[in-house]
Specification:
The protein is α/β, with parallel strands linked by helices. It has 9 helices and 12 strands.
Amino acid sequence: MTAPLRVLHVASEVTPFSKTGGLAEVVAALPRALRAHGVAPFVITPRYRSMDEAAHPLARRLEPLVVTLGARTERVVVYEAMLPGGTVPIFLLGHPLFDVDDPYVGPDGAGDHPDNGLRFALLCRAALELAHTYDLWPDLVHAHDWQGALALAYAKRESFLDRPIPRTLLTIHNLAFQGLFPTTVLGEVGLGWDLYHPDRAEFYGQISFLKAGIAYADRITTVSPRYAREIQSQEHGAGLDGFLRHHAPRLTGVLNGVDTEVWNPARDPYLAARYDADDLAGKAACKAALLKELGLPGRVTLPVIASISRLTEQKGFDLIAEAGEEL
């Protein structure tokens, strides 16, 4: 009997343990969907200070890892848990670099943590060390966004005894964030100066973790077919459009789905009424309850236009502000 495909997911956030946006939702739902199709996925992510262990208890603390990162030798604590549903294991990494409330932004809220490069390089290097140490060596390493991208470079460039080189997959959830750092980061994270090359990680005099991931990925996916086309254009390519066009044969857009185990109006306990495709009567009751909660006129025949999003220019809210008077 053929062993199931073992897939390692490396991500900076995974709901319900950590979440700043949609990335965490995808990384929690996708492995569970893969498990239902006979794949053997597991997830590795940091254990942040802000994690609510009372709400999401960890199963056990495993033997710590000793991880080499450049000239540094780091001791990383490993916690084991399960994603909701109990079919996919997740390992959370404890280290002083992960002892932060926000994964990306510093305590003053004014900018990124200055040690983000070291933080997420450690995540990537430790993820592979964990898979090697605990005999979970993957057939495929699936990295998510720039924070997980260096896992693909480490997987292709480093030797883990007699382990075979795994196949690699990078998913770009948001091209606007590329993990840009000074060139000195190469030595700090144990990668050679040969990465400072236009065909690898060099980006206008800096190092781009995301570009390194693209360079070392056997396949690249994005969150939709349209986004895959957009990021190859100068307007939406954030400076990587030419590099992505060069790698277009390996680039595919896969439309993000919805986790119907969580988002299902037929059994959502938080809705005013339940409904499904065969009986939409409850939908009007939900709309009436929403209008009442927001203090809007209770005219259920009028359409409601809503957006759930971050208030950033990338999402187009600046366009609404500019057109406000005309609207």
